[in-house]
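Ticket #4471: structure output looks truncated?

Reporter: J.K.
Steps to reproduce: submitted the chain below (235 residues) through the standard prediction queue, then opened the result file.
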Amino acid sequence: MGIIRKVLVIDDDVLLVRLMEHHLIEEGFEVIKAYNGREGLSLVRSLKPDLVTLDIVLPDISGWEVCQLIRQVSKVPIVMLTVKEEEEDVVRALEYGADDYIAKPVGMKELVARIQAILRREEFHESPKGWVGFSDEFLQVDLAQQRVLRQGSEVRLTPTELNLLSYLVTNAGRTIKPRELLVEVWGQEYADDFDFVRTYIWQLRRKLEPDPKNPKYILNRPGFGYCFERRQQQA
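Returned output as attached by the reporter:
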């Protein structure tokens, strides 16, 4: 019998929580429930779940604040539930450290599939042996140590952002189609979500580039895909 993965659901919608619990238990997950942000934070610290689903609107503190506070103590994958799939909410979710976002009303099959995909890539992601990455006078990417420095200061990336950057860097110089990025980084469940990869690329540029509007590392080749431009390679 495999390891039972724990999912913490932080949401004050009792009926939705019950529905999520039913479907997740059917798929073999253990479900932990919290109906407000402070309770959720306490459970993250005490029970160390494998994944958190987090609603933005909570009765005590906002989901945005909860996400930030979780990121201060844990790298657990976070899936944020947004009322509308508006770009500003999506960008804000990524800025605050979420790994994924799903618009309400939530389709249970989609939710379970995305949770399974996130945990699958967390389980099989391994750091490369030896030094693998990129280094120049502005940006340093050490994939073995999972560290990224921008002008000497460490950049905080979510696990998903790091996985995306890792795939781009290890394929530096090659133009990668969006569908390939989606399948290889997120999983087959995301293969057609092209807005998804565009949003994450923008977020990486915002964190890494000297000028995100005129990128020099993560380039877009219209009609073809994305490419990490390797300028200097560390020996």
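Triage note (M.O.): checked the attachment and the full token line is present. The longest helix spans residues 108-124.
Status: closed, working as intended.
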